[in-house]
Amino acid sequence: MKQTFLAGGNVLTPDGWVNAHLVVSEGQGLVVERPDPDRQRGLVPEVLDISGYRVVPGFIDLQVNGGWGIDFASNPEGIWEVGQRLASTGVTAWLPTLITSPEDRWQPALDALADRPSDWVGAEPLGWHFEGPWLNPKRKGAHGQELLRTPQLPLDPLFDSSRGVALLTLAPEMDGCLAAIKTLRERGIIVSLGHSDAASTVATEGLVAGATMGTHLFNAMSGLDHRDPGLAAALLTSDAFFGLIADGIHSAPEMVNLAWQIGADRLVLVTDTMAGLGLPPGVVKLGAYEVHLDGLSARLSDGTLAGSVLDMPTAIRRFQAFTGCCLADALHAASTVPARVLADSPVMRGGARGLLVPGARADLVVIDDDVNVVATVIDGLLVHQDRKKLQ
Q1: What 3 state SS string does 100-166 have?
Q2: pLDDT band per the 50, 70, 90 thresholds, residue 248
Q3: pLDDT digits (tens, 9 = 90+) for 155-166
Q4: How far apart are CA 20 and CA 10, in angstroms?
Q5: What single string gives the DSSP state of each residue in 181-231?
Q6: Which helix (DSSP H) or strand (DSSP E) does residue 64 occupy?
Q7: Rounded to 5 degrees, what angle do the CA atoms 215, 144, 259 make?
Q8: Quick one: DSSP state of residue 58?
Q9: How confident is the model at residue 3, as a pLDDT?
Q10: Residue partners of 9: CB distance under 8 A and separation at least 6
Q11: Are 242 and 272 in contact (CB under 8 A)?
Q12: Is 272 a catalytic residue?
């Protein structure tokens, strides 16, 4: 069993920042302690001196459509390569996301998740996020209108957490969706409301039926009109979680700050990143669409936003800048809160995530004060290291 001793870091615990040493063991729970460093160096084969750096819970991204030229709607097998690369961004667990796609793409996506490569290490894909196809055409965004539909009851057995579906986004106002929410929850799937034109009253019915989250708050949904409140209003005034893309493009900084002021403990930072992540300006695919990258955003030819090119450290930095919150609060939205979204889901196997406490899963990130990733540990195994910063 491989062990690593992380010496001298400033560790983010539920009680705040603590100067402590950590011992991580492959496949074992986390140990946060203050052992004698000199003695420990002789007991643990690998020692990393992380003095001057911060140790924080691993980031958990609930909406990743692809990255580094890989589009999951076209190449679901690419989740394993993207998972390896995500570790360098501090992501330790994530939900690969399949946008609305032809039905014959659903099973290959589940098969790809089940076919885990031998000896693979990287950010752990916990299950698929199916974003669609039960969406409102009025709020389709970059989803193909010809592929949108309403659920057929009884639901296909494929929609089950045991088959690898962790989360599903739907529009509660569409025919059959309220009944579908109840079935999906019975099958262990988290339900998120999005791509919806629902009035606040209908959105609330969806939450009462069992939905617990909203997908990319403010984007592709009915909003905050003072006489006709929509889904965004229902989410902000409920106890539901909500994802937020804090790139300053999907939502203005003032709206990001508003969301944080109202629901800080329910806000989930998501990237909604797609194949353009890590690529220069150019053209990539998102499903059947060509998406134009300009270095800051990803858009269809008509200007419609089509996911993002955001990584999680950048999201954290921008979120902190937009809200004025402290670093710990921004990190909370990237780790602890998304872990809470999935807390009751069968996909959250292998121990608690999102907190650095004794016995929790040893998923953590070493960062500098500017949220640059120095090292990433997943399930006790050091999977990424910036050797220029850690000698």
Answers
A1: CCCHHHHHHHHHHHHCCCCCCCCCEECCEEEECCCCCHHHCCCCCHHHCCCCCCCCCCCCCHHHCEE
A2: very high
A3: 999 999 999 999
A4: 6
A5: HHHHHHTT-EEEE-SB--BHHHHHHHHHHT--EESSTTTTB----SSS-BH
A6: strand 59-64
A7: 20
A8: P
A9: 80
A10: 19, 20, 21, 22, 50, 51, 53, 54, 55, 366
A11: no
A12: yes
59-341 and 3-56+354-385 share a CATH fold: no
Work out whether strand 31-33 and strand 16-25 pair parallel, antiparallel, or are unpaired: antiparallel
pLDDT of residue 26: 81
Rounded distance between C-alpha atoms, residue 308 and residue 293, angstroms:
9
Element (H, E) at 67: strand 66-67
Instruction: Give me 82's structure tokens.
Output: 């993207």
Buried b (16+ CB within 10 A) or exposed e, 310-323: bbbbbbbbbbbebb
Where in the chain are the domains? 3-56+354-385, 59-341
Q: What 3-state class would DSSP assign to 13?
A: strand
CATH code for the structural domain at 3-56+354-385: 2.30.40.10
Instruction: Say how many Å lie between the first and final Cα of the chain, rounded.
Output: 23
CA distance 146 to 144: 5
Judge whether residue 233 has pLDDT over 90.
Answer: yes
Residue type present at position 176: G
Q: Which amino acid is at 134?
A: W
What's the pTM value of the predicted model, to 2 decimals? Answer: 0.95
Q: Tell me the two tokens of residue 228.
A: 């006709």
Helix spans in 335-385 (H): 336-341
Supply 156's token pair: 């296909």
Span 59-341 CATH architecture: Alpha-Beta Barrel (3.20)
Average pLDDT score, the chain: 93
The answer to whether the beta carbons of residues 362 and 105 sit under 8 Å apart is no
Predicted pLDDT of residue 33 = 58
Helical (H) or strand (E) element with 12 = strand 3-13
Q: In which band, very low, low, confident or very high, does the pLDDT at 43 lie, cut at 50, 70 and 90?
A: low
Cα separation, 89 vs 82, in Å, equals 11
Average pLDDT of the residues in 317-333: 98
List the catalytic residue out of 61, 197, 272, 311: 272
Q: Which two tokens stand for residue 54?
A: 């911060």
Whether the pLDDT of residue 348 is over 90: the answer is no
**Amino acid identity, residue 146?**
E
